[in-house]
Design goal:
Layout lengths: L3 E4 L14 H9 L3 E5 L10 H6 L3 E3 L2 H5 L4 E3 L6 H4 L7 E4 L7 H9 L3 E4 L14 H20 L7 E3 L2 E3 L3 E5 L3 H12 L3 E5 L6 H6 L3 E2 L18 H14 L5 E4 L14 H5 L6 E4 L16 E4 L2 E4 L9 H16 L3 E2 L2 E2 L6 H6 L9
Parallel strand pairs: 1-2, 1-4, 2-3, 4-5, 5-6, 9-10, 9-12, 10-11, 12-13, 13-15
Antiparallel strand pairs: 7-8, 14-15, 16-17
Helix pairs in contact: 1-11, 6-7, 6-11
Amino acid sequence: MAVTIGIARETAPGEKRVAATPETCKKLIAAGATVRVERGAGSGAYFTDQAYADAGVQVVADRAAAYDGADLVLCVQPPDPSVIASLKPGAALVGMLQPQADTARAEALQSRQIVAFPLEKLPRTTRAQAMDVLSSQAGMAGYKAVLIAAQLAPRFFPMLTTAAGTIRPSKLLVIGAGVAGLQAIATAKRLGAQVEGFDVRPEVREQIESLGGKFLDLGVSAAGEGGYARQLTDEERAEQQRRLGEHIRNIDVIVCTAAVPGRPAPKIVSAAMIEGMKPGSVLVDLAAETGGNCELTRPGETIGHGGVTIAGPLNLASSGAMHASEMYARNVFNFVSLFVKDGVTAFDWDDELLAKTVWPERPAAA
């Protein structure tokens, strides 16, 4: 019997993305699956029910119908524990699930013996790049962050020569040069700003410079494993703070993107630094969801402090829901293709990507 895949409308506040688009549903159906999608599931990203129906999807009335007897459920954000408790025992669940962040969610997954694949756990390898939801969604977040900064800033980004005189370009600093940071650098450069990038990992200098940015070297290195930064020592942090505080006195716009997986965002920009910035300066903190890189960030709010505007937007990827959904859905399809073949699910636990993404983790067979 063909594997049945269920997709429902996301219920998290402000979430507009969808885990499968008509394009990826068509591919799943071609792989032998039966796909059911709740009516309106794609509306936030402008994918119509008719587009799903044209792709061969069964468009159903509600979440219960989408998930009823489903062997595989695809989502963006984790379902509520009560919804997980209604899933078919032993079903597979794929999405950004964060089981360790909610005890009730973890217990629901285990009690129903759900084969959970939290995609944020996916190994960061070359083979996994086409499945990397963190990277694809961070790209949209970095892009949107710069647009927010441009809107909030009381100045032009590019240099302009006008009849009223020459306008100097805005000086923009991106803190953190992961995927979001690099996209922010590229976007700010396209808008004509004078761009710098700062990261405690010295190996990203070449990437920053390849996008037209200048690498800000503060003399503090925190190169870590797997492409992530390690936590700084107290001495290193103090020196970084001192040098950064001096530098940002002349910066017009800061975009913060620094994150350490599984931990609160590192506090990089202090209240004293903000107070030393020029009136009219702007800081957009992409790390707001995990506490923020700035001491003064209020998640979900835009505030003023001493003439400086500080924005802490949440779930920025959702604000670009159409393209974010397209990328996310392709990531999910590529991952699901590891175990959905010829209309059935077959988990090869010798496959590193499956063995290291499944929760609780199970080692690959010897």
